[in-house]
Amino acid sequence: MYTLLKNRSLIKISGRDAEAFLQSQLSNDITKIQDQEVQINAYCQHQGKIIAIIWVFKKNKSYYLSFPAELKELVLSKLKMYKLMSSVDIEDFSKKMNQYVLINENNEKSLKINKNLSLLTTRDFFKDFQDESHWELACINENFPEIYLKMSEKHIPQSVNLDIDQRGVSFTKGCYPGQEVVARLHYLGKPKRRLFRFTSNFKVSIGDSLNVKNSNSLKSSGHVMRAASDGNKHYFLGIFEVSYINEQIFLSNDQNRLVYLMHEESNLS
Question: In degrees rounded to 5, what are phi and psi of residue 260?
């Protein structure tokens, strides 16, 4: 069953310098994009903080960038700023293509995001499709990150696990905005925060803070990044301080609202 992503932008990048231009802008190695696949990228500002997580795919020598619609002006303004003298055309395709996703299904025309998720772009409109809550739940189950406007320019790629198995960051491709900061942490340190899956008995919202009693952070120990409910229980992805992950965790410093870690990846410590 398809899920229509109604609030997602699609930008077409074409022209003689399209590949080189994107290679200089995004965190992953654009030259390694395969047919029938979506490549995950971080689009960072100069301090290495993520503006948007962008899905990139290639069709007929042109590249397409998919990301939340609320970030469109931010992303477009930055792309146009860096375009300079490059032979590149930047076109908003958001209203020309519908974006559908598939969960645990195969389709010969869809593009693989990971082993369980895929993307189908088409000018057709399907009458039957699932509510987006199914997609959000699937992404939370897959620990698949997203950056929305409220969290834009606040976290580095390592904080949303894009460095693990280099699924969203290449450490050999060369320069892009924020690359020095991201690479320095990779080679010389460890991220203090990672992305984890949580559950709760109450609704949470993107941007809500996550706290523990003993955190030394000046603000909060973490934040909610994406959230969904299956009608009975609430689930969310949260960026959280690794050193406090085994402590009792509260939403918005309210000790009556405990949240619970669903699963801790063994390679995150």
Answer: -125, 135
Q: Which domain holds residue 111?
A: 2-141
pTM over 0.85: yes
Q: What is the CATH number of the domain that holds 255?
A: 2.40.30.160
Max Cα–Cα distance, the chain, nearest Å? 58
Query: Which distant-in-sequence residues (6+ apart) come within 8 Å of 121 by Cβ?
Result: 10, 64, 66, 97, 98, 99, 100, 111
The predicted-structure confidence for 167-178, as pLDDT tens digits, reads as follows: 999 999 989 999
57, 184: one domain: no
Neighbours of 258 (CB within 10 A): 13
Tokens of 62: 């042109």
Radius of gyration from C-alpha coordinates of the chain: 19
List residues bridging with 63 in a β-sheet. 13, 58
Cα-based angle 13, 135, 211 (whole degrees, multiple of 5): 100
Name the phi and psi angles at 49, rounded to 5.
-80, 140
- DSSP letters, 207-235, are T-EEE-TT---SS-SEEEEEEEE-SS-EE
* CA–CA dist 246, 244 (Å, integer): 6
Contact 224, 252 (CB under 8 A): no
* pLDDT tens for each residue of 211-265: 988 666 656 789 999 999 998 899 999 999 999 899 899 998 788 899 999 975 4
**Domain count across the chain:** 2
DSSP code of residue 69: G
Give the number of residues written for the chain. Answer: 269
